[in-house]
């Protein structure tokens, strides 16, 4: 089966969760015998035309010269290229700028499947007009696709209620650590095991980073430093680094894509704070579960559908400070650490995710409707 993946900046991941998803899914599909092409931006650091058996189709991205509008040009070039190939399946994993061109997708040759991701129009960084456009883009993505995928049951319910169109539930995946990371890795960050808390995320307002920072400062515990791993190149990232970068309890590491370093940071953190509130099954939350993290997540339906009772929740900076001042330390080995760890094997493994997509694509190509879900509730 010939499969194309559109809507990312490319693989291997050097940007965010959606690229991480595209990387692991494409590798899993190749291992199952499929021919997979991932579309890649020209400014991606990986310059080869293949990555571990995945074909890479590189196209010009002028975003660094003309801003976010450059994404529309990049997506147009990618979509036009799909018309030259006889793909069986075209999977869109990002539709915010590509759905404008959805009428150009080669529907006569290919089946179009869109992963609806999260509620992009809820992101705080967008102004009113952009949010309005993103609502329309969402509608275009729904109407312009043969089939839809929702990575969260909450997203599936929303799509069904809003557009009267069903989608297949397939969450994102993660790997769990296979051995205890070396604590020596922490020395490069001037950190001591279990004397810091962690967040790995894109630095955007809707990830509630400032809420956690303010709670950390209010608690004022020298054994509870807050390490923020994510690129500060964003507008909001520059703002909060300027505002809090010199505080002794706040540490910015910028983006880290070395899995060995990330595993050590997760494993030896005391609390892992997950502040995402507008997405579905967020990859960084699953990675924290697989990294043996003691997780406290923002109190919303997306996070609760994944964590359930296997974590704690916060909705204000006071909640964060209360957690830091009164909750037990990770070294007491909370039972839900092991439950989350097991879930990565039984439910949220990348093998399960790629198998679900492979089954869904096969059913679509064979003329059948895919199942509502390939995952059992946990």
Describe the structure.
The protein is of the alpha/beta class and 378 residues long. It has 2 domains: 2-173 and 349-365, 3-Layer(aba) Sandwich (Rossmann fold); 183-346, 3-Layer(aba) Sandwich (Rossmann fold). It has helices spanning 17-31, 63-66, 70-82, 128-143, 153-163, 209-219, 235-244, 259-267, 283-290, 301-307, 317-326, 335-346, 350-365, and strands at 2-6, 35-41, 50-51, 54-59, 89-92, 111-115, 147-150, 168-169, 196-200, 225-229, 250-252, 272-274, 295-298, 312-314. The strands form 3 sheets. An 8-stranded mixed beta sheet has the order 3-4-2-1-5-6-7-8. Strands 9-10-11 form a 3-stranded parallel beta sheet, with helices on one face. The longest helix is centred in the middle third of the chain and has 16 residues, at 128-143. It is globular, with a radius of gyration of 20 Å.
Notable characteristics:
378 residues; 15% strand; Rossmann fold; 38% helix; alpha/beta; 2 domains; 14 strands; 13 helices
Taking pLDDT < 50 over at least 5 consecutive residues as the criterion, the unreliable ranges are: none
Counting DSSP E segments of at least 2 residues, the number of strands comes to 14
Please state the second-level CATH architecture of the largest domain.
3-Layer(aba) Sandwich
User: What is the CATH C level class of the largest domain, in words?
Assistant: Alpha Beta
Q: What can be said about the biggest beta sheet?
A: 8 strands, mixed
Measure the end-to-end span.
Answer: 31 Å
The number of helices is: 13
CATH T-level topology of the largest domain: Rossmann fold
Mean pLDDT: 90
Strand content: 15-25%
Strand order of the largest sheet: 3-4-2-1-5-6-7-8
- Tally of discrete structural domains: 2
- How much helix is in the residues? 25-40%
Q: What structural category arises from helix and sheet content?
A: alpha/beta
H and E order: EHEEEHHEEHEHEEHEHEHEHEHEHHH
Rg, Å, rounded: 20 Å
CATH superfamily of the largest domain: Glycogen Phosphorylase B
**Overall body shape:** globular
């Amino acid at each position: 089966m010939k499969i194309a993946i559109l809507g990312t900046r490319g693989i291997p991941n050097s940007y965010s969760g959606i690229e991480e998803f595209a990387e692991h899914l494409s590798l899993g599909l190749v291992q199952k015998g499929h021919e997979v092409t991932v579309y890649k931006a020209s400014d991606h650091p990986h310059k080869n035309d293949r990555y571990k058996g995945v074909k890479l189709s590189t196209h010009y991205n002028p975003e660094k010269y003309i801003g976010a509008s450059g994404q529309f040009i990049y997506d147009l070039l990618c979509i036009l290229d799909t018309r030259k190939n006889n793909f069986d399946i075209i999977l869109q994993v990002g539709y915010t700028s590509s759905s404008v061109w959805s009428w150009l997708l080669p529907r006569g040759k290919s089946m179009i499947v869109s992963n609806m991701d999260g509620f992009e129009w809820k992101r705080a960084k967008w102004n009113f007009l952009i949010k309005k456009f993103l609502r329309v883009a969402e509608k275009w993505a729904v109407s312009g696709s043969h089939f839809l995928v929702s990575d969260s049951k909450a997203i599936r319910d929303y799509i069904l209620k809003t557009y009267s169109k069903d989608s297949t539930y397939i969450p994102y995946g993660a790997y769990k650590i296979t051995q205890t990371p070396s604590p020596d890795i922490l020395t490069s960050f001037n950190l001591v095991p279990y004397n810091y808390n962690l967040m790995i995320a894109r630095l955007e307002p809707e990830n509630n980073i400032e809420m956690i920072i303010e709670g950390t400062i209010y608690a004022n515990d020298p054994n509870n430093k807050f390490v923020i791993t994510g690129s500060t190149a964003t507008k909001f990232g520059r703002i909060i680094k300027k505002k809090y970068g010199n505080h002794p309890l706040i540490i910015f590491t910028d983006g880290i894509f070395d899995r060995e370093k990330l595993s050590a940071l997760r494993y030896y953190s005391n609390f892992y704070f997950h502040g995402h509130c507008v997405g579905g099954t967020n990859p960084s939350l699953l990675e924290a579960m697989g990294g043996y993290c003691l997780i406290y997540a923002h109190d919303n339906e997306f996070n609760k559908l994944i964590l359930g009772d296997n974590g704690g929740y916060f909705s204000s900076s006071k909640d964060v400070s209360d957690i830091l001042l009164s909750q037990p330390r990770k070294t007491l080995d909370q039972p839900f650490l092991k439950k989350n760890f097991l879930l990565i094997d039984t439910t949220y493994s990348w093998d399960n995710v790629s198998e679900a997509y492979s089954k869904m694509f096969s059913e679509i190509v064979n003329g059948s409707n895919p199942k509502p879900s390939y995952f059992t509730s946990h």
